[in-house]
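#data-curation
PF: Archiving a pair of folding outputs for the training set. Convention for this channel: one message per protein, sequence first, structure tokens after, nothing in between. First:
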Amino acid sequence: MISRSKQSGFTAIELLVTLFIAAAFLTTGYQLYSVIIQDSGQTRAQSRASNVAYDYIRRYATSATNPCVATTPLNNVDITVDGLSSAKATVAFTCPYTTSPTVSKIDVTITYNTPQQTMKYSTYVNK
């Protein structure tokens, strides 16, 4: 009579499958981490550009004239912003309503980074 004993533990196939699944989880985790880091950097840059654009709107809102005069006080002027490369600012006044010459529209455009991204804010001022 042949006596068989049952061994406990993993077989070689089970061990290989387990290692493959663990490697897949590690790879997926690293890819997710990379995406989160990249997206947070882009969000931080957008936030900085947005703050600069809003600051320019507040500064130039007091410069609006009555009657409205279409001008471009800043046109692709290089600016220095921490965390942004190749940053440029454009501020333009337009007169959107011919029937109401006291209303001015202020457009502020900030371009930054490579590849170039744009942040644009506008507001209306009634003097």
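PF: Second:
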Amino acid sequence: MKAKIKIKVKGNLDESWTEWFEGMEINNDGEYAILSGYKKDDAYVHGILNKIRDLNLELISVIAYDQEQGSGNQ
């Protein structure tokens, strides 16, 4: 079973950033951007978080969950 991941950051991101964030889907929700996709491994998640840091984006939350569990809590 594949785990999914949702990362919420403050600010909005254009969908053109999808490639920079290794194919993560980007959705803007008000003043936040939600990056979502499948968690390949811990190194993948750390790579995404490093890119968020490098862009000086404010990290709001990181949620990993199994597909069967639903969307998790934010």
